[in-house]
Amino acid sequence: MIIVSGIHVEVCRKNVKNMRLYVKPPDGKAVVTAPLSMAYDEIESFVQAKAGWIKTHVDNYKNIQIKPKQKFVSGETLIVWGEEYILQVKNGGKNSILLSGEKAVFTVKKGITAEKREKFVREWYRKLLITGIEKFLPKWEKKTGLKAEIWQTKYMKTRWGSCKPKQRKICLNVQLTKSIPQCLEYVILHELVHFIERGHNARFKSLLDKYMPDWREVKKILNRQILD
Fold it and tell me: Residue 26: what pLDDT?
């Protein structure tokens, strides 16, 4: 355990090459993963250097009231591309979701459990993300000249996206469908730029500036969303 700015950061050693910081939902627990052979002093220096980042993200969780787990019943809300819809649940022959005005009409088979409702909604969100990727990925590939050979969707609790530069592969979090579309565009660009610059250094940021001048504002919007 490392203490920085009064915050306890758990040290987790793994068979990895690089260190990585996380602030995990739902309580904002700070964790640093580090290679098995790395010296403790080096890990501590890395964490201390990230003190401001850690405090900001931990405070974000402190200021947000944890919502009860959704049961996907009438009266609850469904957030889609940054817009909030009131769930209206009714029985029908097959499961479906239709956005109508300010409502999300959720037709469900009679007797369906909360777990199966959640599974259906998650897959519905995944299909929305796939549609969004098919719309925006070609745009940013053309703009940057960087092409993803493989892309996939995944529910992730600690990051919005990831990539494997050698494979030209990107992975995007299904929960991006709850943010405005510009956030999905930002994450797509972010991961594509990692193909040519793996770190978040000055060159990386200058490339983001080149292709998306307002990326910092979009990132702020994304950072206000808490991953489930």
Answer: 64
